[in-house]
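Need tokens for this chain, all 119 residues.
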Amino acid sequence: MDQFNVAYLMNSPVETLSQGLLLKFKPLNLDVLPLNIVLMAAFPIGLWCMLRWRNAVLIGSIGLYLAGRHYGLNFPSYPAGVWYFNPFAWQLLFVFGAWLALGGAEPADGCFAFRCSTS
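Here are the structure tokens for all 119 residues:
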């Protein structure tokens, strides 16, 4: 049971389940699920902002990433430690993908276009 990080669930199920609902308890190999829940929960607000201020949201995301790296920001984990996948770092990849999907790279199309001449 210890190797799967579920011994806490057997010893104190009510506390462990409540910590699981708070996205703090993570059994083995399920570390990415709370990250996806947090990113998907924040996405509607981020999308609303990106539709209005696409580049400003990307710059803010880069700032949040740098602050997370510099100050060691992370969410706490149960029973000890922090999240394996730091949401303050991974949100940059998520926001960058949304930025590209919304046409953030359109002004640079000329740099990446390959022209085929048929003569």
